[in-house]
Amino acid sequence: MVSIIGRSTTTLLLALSTRRNLFLSASTFASLAVSVSPFTAAAVTSPSSRYKSTLCLCTADETTSASSSSSCAAAPLSTDTNTQRTMTNDLNTGYLSAADAAALDAELMSTPGFCLEQLMELAGLAVAEAVYNVVVGDAGTTTTGEEKKKHVLLVCGPGNNGGDGLVAARHLVHFGLAATIVYPKHSTKPHFINLVKQCEDLGIPILDTIPMEVSEERFDGIVDAIFGFSFSGIPREPYATAIANMIELQQQHKSILISVDVPSGWDVNHGGDDSTNEFKLQSLRPDVLISLTVPKLFAKYFHGRHFIGGRFLPPAMAEKYGIRKTKSKVQAATSESEDWAAQYQAYLEEKEVASEVNRDHIDLSNTADVSETEEESWTVQYAKYCEEKERDLFG
Ligand SMILES: NC(=O)C1=CN([C@@H]2O[C@H](COP(=O)(O)OP(=O)(O)OC[C@H]3O[C@@H](n4cnc5c(N)ncnc54)[C@H](OP(=O)(O)O)[C@@H]3O)[C@@H](O)[C@H]2O)[C@@H](O)CC1
Ligand SMILES: [K+]
């Protein structure tokens, strides 16, 4: 399976490695990327994603790691996209009840001092990465056959699950996909107002209802970010209609339905297959589930493709909540990643050659020296240019 790190992390590492050590090997770079990656995103049965920040492969064991410091950012729990199967036997992380999930959330924001905005950004980024992997997948292209951008509809609810959807929409657009948001009830909290503004600034349409006309856009993926672990009872309007519309689009347009943390309408502790409940008989059947931090109890009844995203648990807290830890291993990168690594190595070599041309001796193990020398070389060239100009002008 593949773990993914965010582009920002990659960029940071590129910048750091370029400045601090030009001989940093691609494999060291990849290991470093894995070790600093703050979240986990998805799993991925499609190891050949061309998304360039996909850096490492993890074993199935990795999906069980709850340690934020050593685990890959996202891990898939099921390994076969075509034959859906239960993940129960594959999962060693334990499941959280709705009450425990809320308590864990509150505790993350007290003892380790995470703020909600921080957690939501990590969660939303992990969601975007999993969605990218699912929608773009093996095809490795962000466009459709007609060269239109692949398009993701994100249906966002009134709480933090909806916030994860808003964050994910922004990242997906930065990843090169088209996004449309349906946000029936806007939160008046300042952070949510900002999230909406950030999406508007990217030109993402924000609608009140799901466009259902046949002539309207076909969505490659639909992200269900309506309800998370604080949902209870039967969905009220306008969300009941939104859920029904998502089911219709999934069935008629063959859009991939991806639920964030909890399939909306499912009982967080008991799942969505309770035949005694009329609504649940019509409830949505997501193709993909992205559990945040840890799967909730209902996930025992989910049989589709399963990712874990946004794992930021310190080990002591993981232990407290019965989340089992295993050692995480980083295996060889995918062939795509190797391509990427090769490109990076070539870039380093190019830089090295350029530096050698520019001066007799450069200590390549010291960034300060390199930049100073480059700066010196540039200033020398500029001085020569000025001298020439002066000679031309004044003889
Ligand atoms: N640590 C983590 O893992 C992190 C988790 N994060 C995310 O937060 C999610 C939990 O967020 P949350 O607590 O805000 O609740 P969530 O489920 O989004 O919705 C509550 C809203 O739904 C409403 N509502 C409820 N029942 C309803 C019904 N039957 N019909 C209609 N409405 C109903 C309810 O309204 P109320 O009943 O209060 O009137 C309220 O407005 C979690 O799943 C994950 O996605 C990340 O962002 C950060 C890190
Ligand atoms: K959801």
- For the record, the CATH architecture of the largest domain stands as 3-Layer(aba) Sandwich
Q: In sequence order, what are the helices and strands, one letter per element?
A: EHHEEHHEHEHEEHEHEEHEHH
Physical arrangement of strands within the biggest beta sheet: 3-10-9-8-7-4-5-6
Query: How much helix is in the residues?
Result: 40-55%
Count of runs of 4 or more consecutive helical residues: 11
CATH class of the largest domain, please?
A: Alpha Beta
Rg, alpha carbons: 24 Å
Strand content: 5-15%
- The low-confidence runs, each spanning 5 or more residues with pLDDT under 50, are 1-92, 325-344, 356-376
The chain-level mean pLDDT equals: 68
CATH superfamily of the largest domain: YjeF N-terminal domain
Overall, the morphology is: globular
- Ligand set: ligand NPW, potassium ion
Q: How far is it from the N-terminal to the C-terminal residue, by CA?
A: 69 Å
The number of strands is 11
Q: Major beta sheet, specifics? A: 8 strands, mixed
Instruction: Give the assembly state of these chains.
Output: single chain
Q: What would you call the structural class?
A: alpha/beta
Count of the separate structural domains: 2
Question: Which fold name is given in CATH as the topology of the largest domain?
Answer: Rossmann fold
Binding site for K(+): 161, 224, 264
Organism: Discostella pseudostelligera
InterPro entries: YjeF_N_dom (IPR004443), YjeF_N_dom_sf (IPR036652), YJEFN_prot_NAXE-like (IPR032976)
Family: Belongs to the NnrE/AIBP family.
Note the main attributes of this structure.
Rossmann fold, 11 helices, disordered N terminus, eight-stranded mixed beta sheet, alpha/beta, binds ligand NPW, binds potassium ion, 2 domains
